Amino acid sequence: MKTSPIPSWKNLISKAQDLDLSSHEIVHISCFVANLSKPALFLALEDRPTYSQYLEFVSLVERRLKGEPLQYLLSSWTFRSLDLYLDSRVLIPRPETETLVELAISEIKKYSHLKLVKVADLGTGSGAIALSVAKEAENVKVFATDVSLDALEVAKLNSGRVLSQKEQNKISFYSGSWWEAFPGELEHSFDVVISNPPYLSQLDMETIEEQVLDWEPRSALYGGDFGTRDLDTIISNSPRWLSRPGSLLLEIGITQGDHIKELVFKNGFDSAEIIFDLTNRPRFCLARMSS
After folding, report:
1. Is the previous residue joined to 217 through a cis bond, with omega within 30 degrees of 0?
2. What pTM, to 2 d.p., does this model score?
3. Residue 282 CB: number of other CB atoms within 10 A?
């Protein structure tokens, strides 16, 4: 019995488009399977994939149609300058968090007079924030925590994947819930603390995209009934762990600014600024403590 020839990349991509996948997603899947850059793929559209590539392409398209996020299908995604490994053990880093890192790098520079700036990343997940800081900031020691051992495993894998040996020496990982991960000798030692904690409320969870709810870890999304459970824990305990002066930089929900500012001042901070993201939504809080 004569078997049908494997379609060219051009025909495969065309058939996938008929299945209601976006061109953006199809190109990503094609490049991943073919192990080609986008320009190289466009030059090879008339070529046929190998049989194993064909089967992998079909499998990934079927998984995407079932809702699995593209980032998990490809096992990687670009975050700033980093090509991070990702799977369903960790939250997919968002563009907003790239802005959080930008703000953090700027804040760290204000401590450039110090021989070594100690930076904590609470709830590191894939390591996106901590690894970006280790790569981009000078004279830092980064302390990254997560309560999830699975997440720490992914973060450590990414450390070896995206950092040089010298950069890896700038970061340490700690297991535990928020501040509980740190030993007592680190009290009052952190110059800059960064966190993108779970901040979705119960209402947010009821209206969130099904793809997010079905595939990404709930523990990295849900922040209690009002979304501020973990933010409250981080802020209320921060005076014990921050140096003086010290800075706290948080990613927050867009309706939480007033509550967060009130809590920050209640816990002895001298200043609190709500900063807008690139879509002009109040997404971050920068708080400073001088004494």
Report:
1. no
2. 0.93
3. 17
Distances (CA, A) of 73 to 28, 69, 85, 261, 273: 10, 6, 11, 39, 38
Q: Going by C-beta distance under 8 Å and a sequence separation of 6 or more, which residues neighbour residue 206?
A: none
pLDDT digits (tens, 9 = 90+) for 200-251: 999 999 999 988 999 999 999 999 999 999 999 999 999 999 999 999 999 9
Rounded distance between C-alpha atoms, residue 232 and residue 212, angstroms:
24
Q: Domain 88-289, what fold? A: Rossmann fold (3.40.50)
Tokens of 57: 């392409």
